[in-house]
Amino acid sequence: MTNATSNYQVIIVGAGFAGVAAARRLGKAKIPTLLIDRNNYSQFQPLLYQVASSQLPPSDVAEPLRAIFRKRPSVRVLTAEVTAIDAAAHTVTVDDGTVYSAPTLVIAAGAVVNFFGTPGAAEHAYPLYSVSDSTRLGAAIIEQFDKADARVAAGEALDPTNIVVVGAGPTGVEMAGAIAETINSVVPRTYSDAVREAFTVHLADLAKTVLGPFTEELQQYAQEHLEELGVQLHLGTSVKEVRADGVTLSDGEVLAAPIVIWAGGLHAQPVVGQAGITPGRGGRLNVNDDLTVPGFPGVYALGDAANIPDGAGKTLPGLGAVAKQAGAWAGENILADLKGTQRTAFEYHDRGFMAMIGRMAAVAEVGRSHKQLHGSLAFAGWLAVHDVLLPSARPRYNALVNWVRDYFTEDRTEFIVGDATRT
Ligand SMILES: Cc1cc2nc3c(=O)[nH]c(=O)nc-3n(C[C@H](O)[C@H](O)[C@H](O)COP(=O)(O)OP(=O)(O)OC[C@H]3O[C@@H](n4cnc5c(N)ncnc54)[C@H](O)[C@@H]3O)c2cc1C
């Protein structure tokens, strides 16, 4: 174990929406800050499904951290796996054994997929939480189309092939809609009709509706649109087991499926739960309204790693906008600590939420009043909001160009060149 001589005022664990926003604010104020992430880039999770369905290349959803902080030299970027956090001692240990310490510690390590103990899910299902998850899944889908194509070329009949998406929240709905659209519109451009006809997308969820957090009207719209795309819905149905060759549903149905995608839930990163702080719901850390961790002076927890109070007795949802705003707010509160002034309670500016279902089809609840939109207006709103959420001008421009290209050409085969091997 090496103790790094630490001249940092702040250590931030995790460079997602929350960590980057906090570091940006601290970098602007020239505060010596160490920003640690296992990746040398910040990934944009809301668009991972578009990488998996070949609508965007991976470079559009991952921005190098050194590029983000080039003009903020007080922020040092360290690419390393954090193996331990000691919240009481304010130390962070990384995978080469080095221990860093600083007066202020920000825990912004996000979440991991939660398989809820479903047998076989960890071994056989594809999660969608990182850029590598999305390229692996995208390559696996294309591999299935290629295999089917080879059988057609050899004169063989194709067996029906299912792709199962588990979890009908926004991630599952977006994923199911995008794959169904690929099968309907993109596959026929590259493969024979027999390939298109062989594939069916299934979407399963224990809930009785898709898109739990949305209004009934928007749920209905989403459900009908998915069905129009040919997605088979299994609502009120959980997945009991995942195997290499498919799933067993709670109603006893067995679906043969070479690809099972897990969009079924999240849990805070294990390292967060081992920081010496008793975790709250979902393994996340409960925080005060100023984003500090009760009983641990100088420790903040943000984004998907935290249960952030909404001021009305509940916690804020795990959204990019919540994480980004909390990161910037924590940056301000750390500056207040350094100046010896009062920290302030986090105020979330709720701009609503949205989900894409397919071309010209999305649902949105916009603004503080959650005005309902669906169809092409929500589709345009979704593109605009997600473009603005991207971390900087380069990915914003590139994503926009690729969306326009995708809209007019529907050619989605060129981006995925990854390895389909699951683990
Ligand atoms: C597939 C998907 C789709 C989504 N769609 C939307 C959407 O449409 N709209 C929306 O608002 N929100 C969406 N979300 C939620 C949103 O992405 C999250 O709420 C947001 O990313 C949380 O930000 P964060 O900074 O807390 O965590 P993250 O963005 O997850 O960042 C955490 C960072 O910590 C790093 N890290 C974790 N553990 C370690 C470790 N041990 N060592 C080193 N580094 C570590 C990770 O590499 C990562 O970079 C989606 C999430 C997913 C997974």
UniProtKB/TrEMBL annotation:
Domain FAD/NAD(P)-binding: 8-318
Signal peptide annotation: none
SUPFAM superfamilies: FAD/NAD(P)-binding domain (SSF51905)
The UniProt record lists the keyword NAD: yes
Coiled-coil region: none
Catalytic activity line of the entry: a quinone + NADH + H(+) = a quinol + NAD(+)
Oxidoreductase listed as a keyword: yes
Pfam families assigned: Pyr_redox_2 (PF07992)
InterPro entries reported in the protein's UniProt record: FAD/NAD-bd_sf, FAD/NAD-binding_dom, NDH-2
Entry keywords, A to Z: FAD, Flavoprotein, NAD, Oxidoreductase
Enzyme class: oxidoreductase
EC number: 1.6.5.9
GO molecular function, one term: oxidoreductase activity
Family affiliation: Belongs to the NADH dehydrogenase family.
Name listed for the protein in its UniProt record: NADH:ubiquinone reductase (non-electrogenic)
Organism expressing this protein natively: Dietzia aerolata
